[in-house]
Amino acid sequence: MNIQSNPETLAQAIPETMKAVVCHGPRDYRLEQVPVPKPGPGEVLVKVILAGVCASDGKCYDGAPKIWGSNDGQGRYIEPPITVGHEFVAQVVQFGEGAEGRDGLKVGDHVCSEQIVPCGECLYCKEGLYWLCEPHDIYGFHQRTPGSWAEYMVFPRKALNYKLPEGMDPEHGVFVEPLGCAVHTINRAELRFNDTVVIAGCGSLGLGMVAAARMKNPKRLIALDLHPARLDLAKRCGADMTINPREEDAVAKVKELTGGYGCDVYVEATGAPRAVTQGLDMIRKRGRFIEFSVFREAVTADWSIIGDTKELDIKGVHLSPYAYETAIRMIAEGRLPMDEIITHKLPLEEFELGIQMVIDGSSSLKVTLRP
């Protein structure tokens, strides 16, 4: 780990060029030498300490239509060529004109920034729904917001930035973005004290959801996953019990535990279509179904279960609004076994290995890259 603390050293050490992973197309990601960005008015230049590899990065690499649109480019979200990456922790090295002191930052501080840079002008931003901003400039996807798989990156003038507290391991800050998504998911679930809550999927995000749900103290918190090691971690994050659907009928077990009714809240965090239909079968009438995942393919389900059969509340979840401060506090307070959740720290040159590990998912939780 090479984290410098001397502000003068940081400022003097800024090179002219840097390594960056640039996306040119599906399965066409290249490690390139590019100019170090210059911070403009109101902007902050940071040196990346660690960058996370998200499940959506794997889907983007594979050419998911949700990101790349149809064959003729219609509906495309990503704007290549672009430096990828939206999960990161970094260190402030330089301010653009008028930016010094913004967000309480100074050179040498360890920081993170929300993955979306809102425009502040569209309908959603004016309504306070900045995470649904219509231009939707997320780091690593749009030309206005190059990402974190690089040695340096710039926080734009309208970025939402956060300083990490003293005493917190800076490298754990790479998990703030996914944990923020987990916190927002649990906030959307509106948990109650007598709820039986099921969280399906104990990847790094699901584990964050378990930890966040535990802070709400529902009556019963159940974690589902196909990997025993992940279920062990779920217990350490606060799950009351775990179920492996490979080993027992998860729907039958939850109904047995609830007098035949089913769970009050079902959180889908697997990205597997089967987990959606499983949840619709498992949940009680008038239950709350919370959907977080991004799917590779369309999901088919009996829509009548939602209305005529069970009168369910279905809530989607996007990004991590108003959740970064809580996520930072959770990590700083040691509410998650971070050194076991961050399973891999690969050099930036091994980005393709990192992507494949995330796509495979069998031997990793949070995979990170060190520029």
TrEMBL record:
Family annotation (Pfam families): ADH_N, ADH_zinc_N
GO MF annotation terms: L-iditol 2-dehydrogenase (NAD+) activity
InterPro entries given in the database record: ADH-like_C, ADH-like_N, GroES-like_sf, NAD(P)-bd_dom_sf, Zn_alcohol_dh
Keyword Oxidoreductase in record: yes
Listed Gene3D superfamilies: Medium-chain alcohol dehydrogenases, catalytic domain, NAD(P)-binding Rossmann-like Domain
Enzyme Commission code(s) on record: 1.1.1.14
Superkingdom assignment: Bacteria
Keyword Oxidoreductase: yes
Keywords: Oxidoreductase
Top-tier EC class: oxidoreductase
Record-annotated Alcohol dehydrogenase-like C-terminal domain positions: 205-332
Domain Alcohol dehydrogenase-like N-terminal: 40-160
Protein name per the record: Sorbitol dehydrogenase
Organism: Rubellimicrobium mesophilum DSM 19309
